Amino acid sequence: MADFWKRLGEIDRRIIFVLIALAVLVPLALKLAFPIPVGKGPSKDFFDSVDSLPPESVVLMSFDYDPSTKPELHPMAIAIVQHLMSTDVNLVAMALWPQGASLAQEILVEISDSLGREQYHDWVNLGYKTGGLVLIARLGSSMKAAFPTDLSETPYGQIPMLDGIQRLCDFDMIITLSAGDPGIPHWVMVASDQLGVPVGGGCTAVSAPQFYPYLQRRVGERPQMEGLLGGLRGAADYEALLRRKYAQAPPGTAIAGMAAQSVAHLVIMVFIVLGNLSYLALRKRKEGQR
Amino acid sequence: MRLYVPLGITFIAGIIMILEFFVPHDPFPTLGGHVKDWYTIVASSAIFLGILNLLRVHLKKINLRSRNWQYSPVTIIGFLGMFGTGVAFGFTEGPFFFMFNEFVVPMGATMFSLLAFFVASAAFRAFRASNWRASLLLASAFLVMLGRVPIGDLIWRLIPGAAESAHPNLVTEIGEWIMRVPNMGGQRAILIGAAMGVVATSLRMIFGIERSYLGGTD
Amino acid sequence: MGRLGLFLVILIGPVPALAAGSAGPDQARPVADSFEAVDSPNDAGGVIELSWAMSPGSKLVDSMLVTRSKAGGPENVLSVVSPVSTSYRDTTVANGVRYSYALVPMLDGRRLAEVGPVAASASAQWIHSGRSGMLIITVILAAFILYFIRHGRKGGELYIRQIAGLSAVDDAVGRATEMGRPVLYIPGIMDMDNIQTIASTVILGRVAARTAEYGTPLMVPVSKSVVLSVAQEVVKEAYLEAGRPDAFQKDSISYLTDDQFGYAAGVDGIIVREKPAAIFLLGAFYAESLILAETGRSVGAIQIAGTAMPSQLPFFIAACDYTLIGEELFAASAYLSREPKLLGSLKGQDVAKLFFMVVIVLGVIASTVGQAWDPASEIAAFIRNLTHVE
Questions:
Q1: Residues of B in contact with A264 (CB under 8 A)
Q2: Is residue B154 part of a domain?
Q3: How would CATH label the architecture of A42-251?
Q4: Does residue C167 belong to the interface with chain A, where contact is any CB pair within 8 Å?
Q5: Best mutation site among A167, A262, A283 for testing chain B: the one with the most B CBs within 10 Å?
Q6: Residue A60 pLDDT > 90
Q7: Does the pTM of the predicted model rise above 0.90?
Q8: Residue A284 has what pLDDT?
Q9: Which of A218, B61, B165, B192 has its CA 20 to 30 A from that of A266?
Q10: Residue B171 to residues A41, B152, B174: CA-CA distances in angstroms?
Q11: Closest approach of chain A CAs to the CA of B217, in angstroms?
């Protein structure tokens, strides 16, 4: 019996890997779907702050991620761009990560085509620029100095929708989808804390806990972040809220992914319980021997 | 000379950046803007150093037939293939764009996905209820894991009367509370401590007390 | 309220002008109310901010012209703004020159009666009023640190507690030497502008000094080109100082890729092929932290990790033998070198931290008591203003 508990506590990690793979694959293959209950929380706060932007507002959306975190952050980006383009809000996209610019372009072109929005009048993609925090600080004084042209080399001055947009203060909101550094903390430090522009955004689930301090709200004061979408769950929340508001919004991939994530969490919990059963049984045995 | 020039540059650039933050009067915003522009230029051009090193290390490995040299041609062909097609056919379309979307994107996502497997095996190994604090951590982890996925509330609603109660999403709410209150307190403590360390290290560097990042210990 | 005195509010003018009403009672009201022009605060000058509120019930106009004139000069149209706009920033002014502004409603191509004029002049400020609290805090922190550096230099007694992860550096390198396997040093994935990377290169120097002394191979794969040159320089100097310049191999410090997971894959490959006996993961890490640490664990390496990224700390604690938490990473340089001036700066940092802890506790108490007792809420508001940054 003791051997059983010992072996249980030392399960080969490859067995864990196989079961996790199955826990993700099977729900996706069976197209399992769970309802997404969205109550009060950072996802709802973020959705509400985007939804309450007045018409003609200008939003800066920074795509600070790359393909590796695409499964988590791209569904958020799609839902947010759909939301912004469904309302009369103008969208300026940029990227602090090199590959973010092309990921942004992919979404912007597809959604603007489907919703009949026009490049340079309703949206523009300024592309990627290196520099991180330093670049954001530069944007605080001059957008044009940092981005003399957009992604397609059109000069900043020739883009009609950028007329009157000189620096970060001229934006009504900044949205960052951040996979790491540079990302959320840098936008909060410069754009929100120093310049007072509302900042919101999304991040990978693994980094979400560290941004909760930015979300605290005090009566009469603006929080450092308007809201936060944490990982696939955050994306699913946004998709659910978007579909609640616009029934015609196309279904997103995040809601579909939640079933797989649910089962994977359960499998991990089962393993933790097994590990603890083994640990407690062996400890009891040791104490008995003593 | 080799020591004092970099120390002087660090001091001047550091002081300019501090003054730019507190003094909006010219010339500090302009000087600060220049320092930021220079950093952007230096950071962008430094990539060539990396490329040269990459090619040098792997060509040398092939030349000397060092251990595992067989991997080096793969690296060089991969690098030159991507770079060459990008220059020849453009970076936003054509073969480069195809390889980027069909090779780089899935490979990056695959590496990131490994995290799920490693999290599972690390959690299995590390989460042991060895004392009351570890048990508390374990209980919080369970609640957060359930609270981050819809199945947590679905399980809660299996309890008779739970679905009609004032808290039909109780598990999500508890998970959110753990994130918002105890987690936020802990995060803040680490964040404030680390920020103090950042400020102190920056001051040490600006005033030339910390020099070992320039090479050597003093 | 005090900072309002810093910038110039020239005029909050009466708004007598009415929309030229040839017909209809709704046109007999001003289009805009409380039209004002103020110097933009906390800047280098050159900007005047105009703001106004639309009068409720006034006639809707097609657009509005924002006009500007200098004393005795001609009127220039600065911009045509939409009828729902309520503000405009004039960024084309010279400091110290007084400008008059007016708002001209346009309807069917006709100019209606203007609102204004109001006048203002732009000026530059020497201190950012919204950051004065931060300035005080920075000065206090710097004063503590500089005082204790002086204290340390004079030979004052400075105690530093045991940090297990740093004490284990020598053992880890020693173990690699005994096993005849290399040491792998991973300085994070961020560039040299990240202070954690700088702290890591400082520790790299100490580790390199040990590997030079013991004759153990050291591998440093990096993810950023600038880090590559710095790491090469730091390791080279450490080998020179240890009297082993011959053992220094420039290529052992190599650039892999800037890509986060490409780098993680590359380092994983090195770990699996070379099977290092000791792995140092010190610096700024993101999601790749656990991928690297688990792979290191799978080859049986002794692992010392350290980062100030709160979200990655649990992973390191789960998978590594020792973990430096947050500021311990920044204390490493002083801890390993035991130089009095560095230890002094650490002591100064600790005293400053104690000071801020007292401020935080006072703030919490004042804020809580302030719910029932007004003087306490004033203290809370003072502390909040002091720590607030714009």
A1: 116, 120
A2: yes
A3: 3-Layer(aba) Sandwich (3.40)
A4: no
A5: A262
A6: yes
A7: no
A8: 87
A9: B165
A10: 13, 6, 5
A11: 29
